[in-house]
Design goal:
47% helix; 4-stranded parallel beta sheet; 5 helices; alpha/beta; globular
Length: 158
């Protein structure tokens, strides 16, 4: 399981005063909705202000994440689902989303919580989506990472 050795993302974190935008794709609705719910729970528990923006797919996550950060968001939680198929399309979309979101974080100097699942099949996504019976909650983990990084940057720049 990919979560082996992961830090405990459920620890208390104070996100008061932080404005976070969840940017989520629309593919694989059951999995994506689970990821969004996990991110929302985490942001609410931390006291952060948040909003949700939907995009067509994972390829569109970087440009909308950049716009959200340039419009004043302190952090973004990028959520998407890419399932391997029988063509190289999976590799191209996965690389574009990953490289694009990394560039957005570096170019803006603001955190992007990475919650883009790259999967071999739908069952792997359901197992990571924070749904009842799931073994992991990648939406929660991505939101926690975005908040923790925003707090660290605020302290460093303070």
């Amino acid at each position: 399981m990919s979560g082996a050795g992961a830090p405990d993302a459920a620890g208390a974190i104070d996100g008061s005063g932080l404005n976070v935008v969840i940017v989520a794709g629309t593919w694989h609705e059951q999995i994506t909705d689970g990821l969004i719910a996990g991110a929302q729970r985490t942001l609410e528990a931390a006291g952060a202000t948040w909003s949700l923006v939907r995009v067509p797919g994972s390829f569109e996550l970087p440009v909308v994440s950049k716009a959200a950060l340039e419009s004043g968001a302190d952090a973004v939680v990028a959520l998407g689902v890419i399932i391997r198929g029988g063509t190289p399309h999976f590799e191209y979309v996965s690389a574009a989303a990953t490289d694009g979101l990394t560039r957005v974080a570096l170019d803006t100097g603001k955190p992007v919580g990475f919650g883009v699942l790259t999967l071999d099949d739908e069952a792997q996504g359901i197992d990571r989506a924070g749904l009842p019976g799931s073994r992991e909650d990648k939406g929660e983990e991505a939101a926690h990472a975005a908040l923790a990084t925003a707090i660290t940057l605020r302290e460093l720049r303070g």
